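User: Design a sequence. Structure:
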């Protein structure tokens, strides 16, 4: 994969967890999550905020293989499933470079990127576009959905419709988190 920064030490990835530490449910402490990754043999492990973002280095495997390994091990340890999106540094670089809303990048809590399990079909994207009737705007580029929510994600009715309308698994991060994770992954890759 061209976006992977592989060295003798391995490749740097970012794991984006979905559905942990939200509303006081499914609590996973970040120190425990770091230890979990280290116990699985990953190195240079770092977490960012409580919603489940882990930068790590793997000596083998690609994003798809790592996702399966992590999801199975996570469920075994914590007793519940968390959808995990594993992405490499190149993916984050493309995500930032292809932001269709550069004019709102300075308002990081109003710009979000959804890491999607796969690229939605034209029909799925059309169905979602029909639901976008408020102040929000969105654009899908491959396996990323960019959402500009001018009133913030918490007040966005449309944001709540995305998962059940699109029917493609994913997890959202605000632009501040996207930039922080890219920075962390870049430093880990150095």
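Assistant: Done.
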């Amino acid at each position: 994969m061209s976006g992977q920064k592989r060295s003798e030490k391995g490749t740097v990835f970012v794991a984006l967890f979905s559905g942990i530490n939200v509303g006081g449910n499914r609590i996973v402490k970040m120190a425990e999550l770091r230890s979990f990754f280290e116990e699985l043999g990953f190195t240079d492990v770092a977490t960012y905020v409580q919603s489940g973002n882990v930068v790590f280095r793997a000596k083998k495997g690609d994003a798809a293989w790592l996702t399966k390994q992590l999801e199975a091990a996570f469920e075994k340890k914590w007793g519940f499933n968390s959808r995990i999106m594993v992405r490499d540094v190149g993916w984050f670089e493309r995500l930032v470079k292809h932001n269709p809303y550069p004019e709102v990048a300075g308002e990081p809590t109003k710009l979000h990127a959804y890491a999607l399990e796969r690229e939605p079909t034209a029909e799925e994207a059309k169905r979602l576009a029909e639901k976008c009737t408020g102040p929000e705007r969105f654009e899908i580029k491959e396996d990323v959905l960019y959402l500009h929510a001018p009133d913030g994600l918490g007040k966005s009715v449309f944001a709540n419709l995305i998962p059940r309308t699109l029917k493609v698994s994913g997890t959202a991060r605000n632009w501040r988190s996207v930039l922080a994770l890219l920075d962390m992954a870049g430093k880990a890759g150095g």
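The beta strands are 6-7, 10-17, 43-47, 53-58, 84-88, 111-116, 137-141, 144-148, 170-174. The first helix runs from residue 30 to 39.
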